[in-house]
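Aim 2 progress update. The chain analyzed this quarter is reproduced below.
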Amino acid sequence: MAEDILTSVLAFIYTIGHWIGEKIVGLIQSVAGIIIPPAIVDAIGMLVILTLFLAIAEVAKKAIWIVVAVGWALIIVRIVILMIG
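Predicted structure tokens:
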């Protein structure tokens, strides 16, 4: 069952990557007027997906650091309040 789910997820990612690759290759061909080999379509799509994942991870990393910093600040405030009171 887990293998079926993994296969379905990977097939979905491949399909999305192929579709994105086709759109980008079509855009490049219409703008630049060059012919791009169909073998590159999947590679372009997968690179776009990886780039999006990296961008999302970078944003999440910044958000996590903000949460950690706020958490430490609240812990320090709590310790100070305990020391004073």
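The longest helix spans residues 39-84. The helical segments are 2-32, 39-84. These observations will guide the mutagenesis experiments scheduled for the next reporting period.
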